[in-house]
Amino acid sequence: MSTGLWVLAAAVVVAIAAGLVLRARNGKVRVAKDSAALPAEVLAVLDGDVTLVMFTTQFCANCKYTRPVLRELAEHTDGIAYAEIDLTDQPELAKQVSVLSTPTTLAVGADGTELLRVGGVPERDELLQNLRPHLR
Amino acid sequence: MFEGAPVDPRGPRFAAWLTTAVLAVVLATGWWPLLAAQAVVFGIGAFVGLKQAPYSVLYRKLVAPRLGPTDEREDAAPLRFAQAVGFGFAVIGTAGFVLAIPALGLVATAFALVAALLNAAFGFCLGCESYLLLQRLAPSNR
């Protein structure tokens, strides 16, 4: 078999494996491991017990699916607020909050600490379940 | 730069399958003119407009009439940015083949194929997702 065919086979395997991993990770809640201080740009949008901060860019394909989930959650749950930060022209901020892909949603407590984060489109009920202990 | 009217999301998915097939042929045969043609297709989608992109035209003429209308729409900017990323890989791949650096040609084409297949099979737009990563890697990073 030629080198090109081997590369083709490898690329197909990698794409399928990556697709399965990405599908499994999409929307999963990851509880924050440390409570490093968040940048002022994030602290400036905090409002309520927990603020869901969605990081987006002009080229975010799935932000339009994430936005209504977060908005609905904020509108119907006391203590939860929703904010959006566009990282298109803010690469330094993206680096500070360790966001490499969008949408990434951070749940931030009233004291400015990161509680959890979600990459991709979150599962509403799973997210709410993880936020309940932080709501008064 | 990458703005435009929202599109039927089934069009980009169709284009991703076609792109996957084209790139698979390139890898299997090493026939670089086909990769160069794919670069042109990417370039039209990215820098001229999705409506003018050849695969979009094929979708509208041949496929859409059989599927019927849909109210769903997808933003153009992420799709055009992804086309620009594909354009970059296709140009690098073509240069690799033309300059007798086949490893470069194969690797760049393989990257483009992985992205196209991820989009076609899983609906995951790797090109769109890579914006922040590319921005971080860019030398002009502020």
From TrEMBL, chain A:
InterPro entries: Thioredoxin-like_sf, Thioredoxin_domain
The keyword Isomerase belongs to this UniProt entry's keyword annotation: yes
Coiled coil: none
Pfam family name, one: Thioredoxin
GO cellular component: cytoplasm
Boundaries of every Thioredoxin domain copy: 11-136
SUPFAM superfamilies tied to this protein: Thioredoxin-like
GO function terms (MF aspect): isomerase activity; protein-disulfide reductase activity
Domain of life: Bacteria
Keywords, in A-Z order: Isomerase, Redox-active center
Listed PANTHER family: GEO12009P1
Family of the protein in this entry: Belongs to the thioredoxin family.
Protein name (record): Thiol-disulfide isomerase/thioredoxin
Organism: Labedaea rhizosphaerae
Automatic annotation (TrEMBL), chain B:
InterPro entries attached to this UniProt entry: DUF4395 (IPR025508)
Span of domain DUF4395: 7-136
Annotated Pfam families: DUF4395 (PF14340)
Keywords on record: Membrane, Transmembrane, Transmembrane helix
Parts of the chain that traverse the membrane: 14-34, 81-104, 110-134
Protein name stated in the entry: Uncharacterized protein DUF4395
